[in-house]
Amino acid sequence: MTLVESLMAIVILLIGLLAMAQVMAFCVVASKNYGRDAGKTTVTARDKMEELSSLSFAGLAVGGSVDPAAPATGYVEYLTSTGGTTTQTAAAYTRQWQIVSDSATAKRIIVLVTSNKSIKYGVAPSTTMVTVKTP
Fold it and tell me: Which residue stretches of the chain are H helix?
């Protein structure tokens, strides 16, 4: 009787361990993909922030939007996975920016990059960067 009980316990333990192995594999893949996308949103946001910061104070036209539901024409770029520009329907990432005039001597630059890749669980990674430019 103890041999049969031992075999049943081993089978139950094996089923539990296989289920845990599948969960662990899913977690590793999901974490890797989310981390990769989060890293790319940060890099592309930084690139745009550097580009806008290098413009003269007068060259920063006030406008734009960082609302993902309402991108402003002229203040949005759609990017591929490698960082090149593409159309909205083929975009892996959406990069938006907004220039706000806080005063006569300060303009706030806001850059938002959102991943458009399908993420089954949770929210898509995004990065927002803000800086102030003075003349």
Answer: 2-53
Look at the alpha carbons of 129, 130, 134, 135 in this order and tell me if their dihedral is positive or negative.
positive
Answer with the residue of higher pLDDT: 125 or 26: 125
* H or E stretch covering 94: strand 93-103
Q: Is the pTM of this model over 0.85?
A: no
Rounded to the nearest 10 degrees, how much is the dihedral formed by the CA atoms of 52, 53, 58, 60? Answer: 30
Amino acid at 8: M
Q: Residue 125 carries which DSSP code?
A: -
In this predicted model, what pLDDT tens digit does every residue of 26-48 receive, in sequence order?
A: 888 778 888 888 999 999 999 99
Instruction: Please identify which residue in the block is written with the tokens 């938002």.
Output: 112
- Contacts of residues 76-79 at CB distance under 8 Å and 24 or more positions apart, as own/partner, are 77/48, 79/44
